[in-house]
TrEMBL record:
Keyword terms: DNA-binding, Transcription, Transcription regulation
InterPro entries the UniProt entry points to: HTH_LacI, LacI/GalR-like_sensor, Lambda_DNA-bd_dom_sf, Peripla_BP_I
Organism classification: Bacteria, Bacillati, Bacillota, Bacilli, Bacillales
Domain HTH lacI-type: 6-60
GO MF annotation: an example: DNA-binding transcription factor activity
Natural source organism: Cohnella lupini
Name listed for the protein in its UniProt record: LacI family transcriptional regulator
Length: 346
């Protein structure tokens, strides 16, 4: 896991180019043939060469900076939850004497975007990084962990992956689903559906599995036509519910949503379709979004203390960076039912 040192002269020899060519590639000059640029960049990446780093960093001293990387194609600035997560990391890092470099990755499949993130690690501009919104097994994140960098991931479950530089924070989705179904069953609901989350992310399949287990536990029938594909955005909830209503299928009496944003979108589609919540359909969300208590009707949901979660994750990452903790770390965040106005007894 230890990263080897190499200088620009050795990079030039390995690439079969001059040292000045290596310099032009590093500084992104345009007068380098594409095939030469790709060859030099490949060797830089393979050997984790650290260009443009300060003498202190090259000497092995810490930058006292952590990275916060959000993988999100939408507008982060307008999302209250995303802003709270960012602020929580910055606040907690500051209390430990660390700075935070933040970056939004619009597309984890974009080669240039991924290369830019890798370079932040390879150039040692940060001592470690936190990733939010990643697919359960994101190749470039796994490569960073393999290369020995300190990496913390929100929402990941990869059996057998327990490297000492991997830190994971998960949600107790099984417990959350059990609480949701228990509550709906207490309101005499038996016909319950689900709008799933993004199945590429860990919470997508884990919430679906939790839903099935909870329905079986309370001996409630599972109807596959009421399990709808979705995501974790308001738009995905709106689209999933709109498509479902267009089929003119029989409605369940209640639905669980992958998160509160999905619930907001689904409830908007229901309203447009003339279906009342909770009069015609009871709805439960996940997360307790800042707007959930002010939504109409106020949304019943599973609350998560995101501030505490991000505080613990940030502190744990810093412990690993400072070598006060040298073991694989994973912790799970509890969820608690918050009953409001979007569910009714039948």
């Amino acid at each position: 896991m230890k990263k080897t040192e190499i200088n620009s002269t050795e990079i030039a020899k390995l690439a079969g180019v001059s040292r000045s060519t290596v310099s032009r590639v590093i500084n992104n000059y345009s007068n380098v043939p594409p095939e030469t640029r790709d060859k030099v960049l490949r060797i830089i990446e393979e050997h984790h060469y650290v260009p443009n780093a300060s003498a202190q960093v090259l000497a092995g001293k810490r930058t006292r900076t952590i990275g916060l990387f959000m993988i999100e194609a939408g507008h982060v600035s307008s999302d209250i939850l995303s802003n709270m997560l960012i602020a929580s990391v910055i606040e907690n890092a500051s209390s430990h004497g660390y700075y935070v470099l933040t970056h939004i990755i619009r597309d984890a499949n974009n080669v240039e975007s991924v290369r830019g993130v890798k370079d932040i690690f390879y150039q040692r501009r940060i001592d470690g990084g936190i990733f939010i919104g990643a697919a359960n097994e994101e190749p470039f994140i796994e490569k960073l962990i393999e290369n020995g960098y300190q990496v913390a991931v929100v929402d990941q479950g990869l059996p057998g992956r327990s490297e000492p530089n991997r830190i994971i924070a998960n949600f107790d989705n099984s417990s959350g689903m059990m609480q949701a179904i228990e509550y709906l069953a207490s309101l005499r609901h038996r016909e319950i559906g689900l709008i799933c989350g993004d199945m590429r992310r860990y919470s997508g399949p884990s919430k679906l599995e939790g839903f099935r287990m909870a329905m079986e536990h309370y001996r409630l029938p599972i109807r596959e036509e009421w399990i709808l594909p979705g995501g974790f955005s308001e738009e995905s909830g709106y689209e999933a519910m709109t498509l479902f209503l267009e089929r003119e299928a029989t409605l369940p009496t209640a639905m669980v949503m992958a998160n509160d944003s999905v619930a907001f979108g689904a409830m908007r589609a229901l309203q447009e379709g003339g279906i009342e919540v909770p009069g015609d359909l009871s709805v439960i969300g996940f997360d307790d979004h800042a707007l959930s208590s002010r939504f109409q009707p106020a949304l019943t949901t599973l609350g998560i203390d995101f501030g505490a979660m991000m505080g613990k994750l940030t502190a744990t990452l810093i412990e690993h960076i400072e070598e006060r903790s040298t073991e694989f770390t994973r912790f799970t965040v509890d969820l608690n039912l918050i009953a409001r106005d979007s569910c009714k007894k039948i």
